[in-house]
Amino acid sequence: MQIRIGVRLILGAGLVTALAIGVMASMITRIHTAQLELGLTRAANQLSETIKTSTHDDMLENRREHLHAQIRNISALSREGIQKVRIFNKEGRIMFSSEKEEIGAALDKRGEACYVCHAEGKPLEHLDIEKKSRIFAGPDGARVLGIINPIPNDPSCAASGCHNPTQSVLGVLDVQISMKDADQEIARSRRIMLGLALVAILASSLILWWLTRRLVLAPVAALVEGTRRVAEGDLTTTIHYADKDEMGDLAQAFNAMTRQLADTQRQLTQADKLASVGRLAAGIAHEINNPLTGVLTYASLLEKRFQDDAESLTDLEVIIRETKRCRGIIRELLDFARHTAPARRPTDLNEVIRHSLAVVMNQLSVNHVDLAVDLQTGLPEAYADGNQIQQVFVNLLLNAADAIGPDGGQIKLHSGTGLMAGAAEGETRPCLELWIEDSGSGISPEDLPRLFEPFFSTKGNHGTGLGLAVTWGIVDAHGGTIEVQSEPGQGTRFTLRLPLTPPDEPEGGPRTRPPVLPRL
To answer: Cα-flanking dihedrals φ and ψ of residue 141, to 5°?
Structure first.
């Protein structure tokens, strides 16, 4: 049977709390009992001293009857807890007692009332209060506190000739007090302490249950539910946990994981789309290209025949223009589907950029684009295919010019060195970094995730939607990355990173890298 973690935590904490409270309650009860017994012992000792003082004159003058009367009067205070008052002589014989039948009886010196004084073989003149007291069970089973108080040989008593001057102790006064009331108080205190301990254990268990539920069970349940939703395919799942503790860190890590999974899924979907389009393009491009070539050839011939027919000539120009447009799309599809492996070699990136600028400079001038170029000198050579990288630069520059439009604007181009993610997690490797920034209209947030999809274009009928897809394929084939940062009305920046060193190739041929889409 499965025991939930919350039950284990509550049971474990509850047992520890109960043990701690139980030990504390037991110690408090023992301390209270000891203090109560000590207080009762001191009161009994004071009473014994009072009795000894009040009977001193009677014993000194040997007024036996008066002494008997005093002891009987004291025994009449049994309602105050005094059970018995006795006076022993040095031989252990009871000379006076509140119970007449005991008078004249002799006790064993090793008995409970005489042992303390005679434990060392001779009477002791002075005893500590702890040694004077004794607790024993009475005839009715109730506890009784006994106090023995030695009666010393007073000098006046020795001078009168009543006792031998060499005797130091004449006898012992024994007072016995019932502890019934004290035991009832102790029992009541124990019941109260037990009740308080139970209440404390219950209250602490409830607080522990609430804290465990609030700090552990609820976050764990949220994580379990979130994990189930992610397993069912809902990658938009997030866990809201405001506390800044380990559970909060775990919730943040879970949310970061789901975002990464969603991004990975989007990248895999994008890669699958690209692969599907590539297969489709490879299948139909050659089939369409030949008929288009025929249409273009015959339309061009007809254009020469109908030079005098303005209406027919206009129609033929439309046919030729649209046919060339279709042929251009087919050519881009072939470039996209061909997956030509880059011929990597050490390449001067700045030189490739200059060649790319020479290709597009006329179009930039027509669009009144102000070009600001910042090429860092002394850059190391990149391990790349110069022709393919030039195609990337041309595509990015033309896209920037189209984003600016005919009203003019500015394009900034920068090259330098930087770092990019390596093969292992947390690893970085040196790279060449280029960014192209335009002052155009920018890209809306909803369009950014689809920017590198084939046939997706923000230019309307003026674009095929394959330029950035081809660009991404080239960059990815080089082991590089491309990032986009854009806001509507604030322009767009494309950041391209290419590794300086060739990719590692294990024995047996080149390794196959999974497709990785650029970060948006």
So the answer is: 90, -15
C-beta of residue 253 within 8 angstroms of C-beta of residue 239:
no
Q: Which residues fall within 8 angstroms of residue 491, CB to CB, at 6 or more apart?
A: 403, 437, 438, 439, 440, 442
In this structure, are 327 and 358 located in the same domain? no
Residue 160 sits in a domain whose CATH number is: 3.30.450.20
Domain count, the chain: 4
Asked whether residue 383 is domain-assigned, the answer is yes
Note down pLDDT in tens along the chain; length 520 residues.
556 666 777 778 778 888 888 888 889 888 888 888 888 888 888 888 888 887 777 776 667 777 777 777 766 655 457 778 888 877 778 877 777 777 878 776 555 555 455 554 555 455 667 777 888 887 778 888 888 888 777 665 555 555 556 566 677 888 888 888 888 888 888 888 888 888 888 888 888 888 877 777 777 888 888 888 888 888 788 887 767 777 778 888 888 888 888 878 877 776 677 677 667 766 676 677 778 888 888 888 888 888 878 888 888 888 888 788 777 777 766 665 565 677 788 889 899 999 888 888 888 888 888 889 999 998 898 888 888 888 889 889 988 888 888 888 899 999 998 888 876 777 788 889 999 999 988 888 888 877 877 667 766 555 566 778 888 888 888 888 999 998 888 889 999 998 887 655 433 333 333 333 333 3
Contacts of 449-456 with C-beta under 8 Å, sequence gap 24+, read 449/266, 449/520, 451/484, 451/520, 452/270, 452/517, 452/518, 453/270, 453/273, 453/274, 454/273, 454/274, 454/277, 454/336, 455/277
Residue 514 is part of which domain span? 343-520
In-domain check, residue 223: no
Q: Does residue 424 share a domain with residue 350?
A: yes
266 in any annotated domain: yes
Specify if 435 maps to a domain.
yes
Q: What is the pTM of this model?
A: 0.42
**Farthest-apart Cα atoms in the chain, separation:** 175
Same domain, residue pair 295 and 441 = no
499/427 Cα distance (integer angstroms):
13
